[in-house]
Amino acid sequence: MAQYTVLSRFAKVFAIIGATAALMLSGVAAHADDNIRYNYDVNGTTHIASTGSNITIGPATMYTAVNPLGEFTGTMALPGTRTEFKLLGFIPVTADVNFEPVGPTTGTLARTPDRRQELKSTTQYYVRLSNIKAGILPLFAGSNCRTSSPVTINANTPAGETFHFIDGGRVVGDYSIGNFQNCGLNTWLINSIIPGGGNTIELNLTNGVWAG
User: Fold this and answer.
1) pLDDT band for position 161 (cuts 50, 70, 90)
2) Which one in 35, 67, 75, 90 has a CA-CA gap of 20 to 30 Å to 22?
3) Contact 53/47 with Cβ under 8 angstroms?
């Protein structure tokens, strides 16, 4: 019975994948029940251009669903992390960083002209800072210090690489950080240091597990 159950699940996956490919080519309307759901381990880094610092992202889990038209949605709660950099080149600054998602990750999983699978995704986060210190001195920014508007991050499969249902893949992108608010007397200082463009992100989605 256990063997039959496993074979039945694989048969369902292959049937859905086949239907997905056919519907993506034919343009037939998709049904929610036809979604393919996979969960992935996520680890990565983001580089903040203005401070020259790298921030670890993860470990986390991305819960995903792809419908027969290749429309992708996902949810991922990121654990808190930490950043370190030098202010004016010599003052060590540390801060706790939280990325607070605004709605789900959305995008597409589609076949490219050279027959690769490519993931394109968009996620919005508020960036929250806390426990900020310059040297040994705390900068009292309060508990509500975060970006005024969500940061939009577009992360896609790099050119020439492939995203696999089971194996996952790598996604990269760049983004801008806007001004912060509710950081007390240090709002002006934070806004003179952190906001700006040219920030990059790299995430590795691995160990895909079928979720039905």
Assistant:
1) very high
2) 75
3) yes
